[in-house]
Amino acid sequence: MTRFAPSPTGWLHIGGIFTASVNLDLARHSGGRYVLRIEDTDQARFEEGALAQFEAGFEYFGIEADESDLAGGSYGPYTQSARAEIYQTFVRELMRQGKAYPCFETPEQAEARVARQKTVGALPGYYGEWAIWRDAPEDQVRARLDAGDPYVVRFRSPGVGGTRAIEIEGFGSVIGSQPRKGRAWARKPRAYASASVRTSPRASRTSTPRSTTP
Question: What is the domain extent for residue 96?
């Protein structure tokens, strides 16, 4: 199964057509199925008319999905915002297991945290002592929930702030410190310099997205 997942935060361009074509061709030559999924979770940047433009572009280039909201399929809906109930089921289970937790940090508080981290030379991110909601008292969390305050759900990772674990074929899991600037693992010990690392160059960058948690 292959999929193309455009976001209606802008217009379909030739790069998107190329990616969709490659996914369609791979599915056709491997006996698989090509799925079109719409990533519309960023509602603040949603562009009116973008979805209609997607459909027109795909039709013009003959890129027809096997499964989509338009074509149907066994695993719909194929628009992310319409799958909230499905995802919430798994989110609740993760929270029951203690593997996730609600975080009430506001965008303004996040900006202030990043500013403090830069001041002291810490990597920007929500981890360690900076993750104030990770182990917040239950009564404090309950009070914010009862008040209807907005929150995001973060994974409760057992990791240690400031370190990164990667898995290397033949060597298992390796943990090392992240440099403060540039790419992680800029220098690899000679013992495994030629090993195959199961992380992409993009994944090994030191920047920490908002969804990454301790």
Answer: 85-155
